[in-house]
Amino acid sequence: MTFAVRNGANWLEALRAARAASQPAALITVTRADGSAPREAGARMAVGPDWQADTIGGGTLEFRAIDAARELFAAGAARRATLRMPLGASLGQCCGGVVFLAIERIDADDDAWLAEAARASLDGEVRVRHVPLSDPSAKVTLTAPQGEAGQTRLEKEGDAEWLLDVLLPSTMQVVLFGAGHVGRALASLLGTLPCRVTWLDARDDMFPDAVADNIVTEVGDDGDVARQPAGAYWLILTHNHALDFDIVEKVLKRGDAAYVGLIGSKSKRANFTRRLEARGVGRERVAAELTCPIGIPGIAGKEPPVIAVSVVAELLQLHEARLRALRD
């Protein structure tokens, strides 16, 4: 049976797809990073016989980790392994730090936590994996954090050692209204990132013939606001200012957006603020929740690809801050 990981799939999607296809797979997790290292504790990658998803930093470190993971596929091999990888001359990497890894062969015993991790990620919830490293026969369990989740870390008690692996909902849910020049540039860039995008426009012929696997296109307008997911990042840049206003009003009145971005000038923002206030959306709330103009400061270019880079950088900054707040 041929198995191929979807282009752009993250480690969790790849492991679930491998399990669904009854294909061997392993999970590599950075459990600790001392000194200068390419990735932090909690970085993960999935590995199959001839594929990988995500990265723990590349270079010889990653090549050796992949080789070790594939050894776990062998019949009779241990289910879990740990590695200490000094990033010096022996690896040909000049970072100078030390990376500690946990490697797990994924099998039927992992189906339950993989499914729950995927559900929690979609719902914006944090989960903690408890991986018993000193008892390879014990199952991995997944729990909601008790208090602050903290960071992925190793813990020991006597001879027992386990990994507490904090899973944050790293996949952004983006709702993109508008398939004009800027909308297309945004979709092209978002299609390369760990996010899920619902891309809407009332004009069916505006969408390209093909989009990335993480993007769903829909013919829709402001009437489709209500059925979008909570906690989404909204980008509103249609061809019609009246439609922009209707969408903004509905999104703000929902009250559950992670971000509401409206393309336009300061004068457009002022106009929308006055009209929203007349519709019952307070001026203070508009000031706090509506971003217009969109994009990070310091990038003044108006070319669609430039706007797209600036806006996506803004989303990533906000999303990382949101994840830190969830963890701490």
From TrEMBL:
<dbReference type="Pfam" id="PF13478">
    <property type="entry name" value="XdhC_C"/>
</dbReference>
<feature type="domain" description="XdhC Rossmann">
    <location>
        <begin position="174"/>
        <end position="315"/>
    </location>
</feature>
<dbReference type="InterPro" id="IPR014308">
    <property type="entry name" value="Xanthine_DH_XdhC"/>
</dbReference>
<feature type="domain" description="XdhC- CoxI">
    <location>
        <begin position="19"/>
        <end position="82"/>
    </location>
</feature>
<dbReference type="InterPro" id="IPR052698">
    <property type="entry name" value="MoCofactor_Util/Proc"/>
</dbReference>
<dbReference type="InterPro" id="IPR027051">
    <property type="entry name" value="XdhC_Rossmann_dom"/>
</dbReference>
<protein>
    <recommendedName>
        <fullName>Xanthine dehydrogenase accessory protein XdhC</fullName>
    </recommendedName>
</protein>
<dbReference type="Pfam" id="PF02625">
    <property type="entry name" value="XdhC_CoxI"/>
</dbReference>
<dbReference type="InterPro" id="IPR003777">
    <property type="entry name" value="XdhC_CoxI"/>
</dbReference>
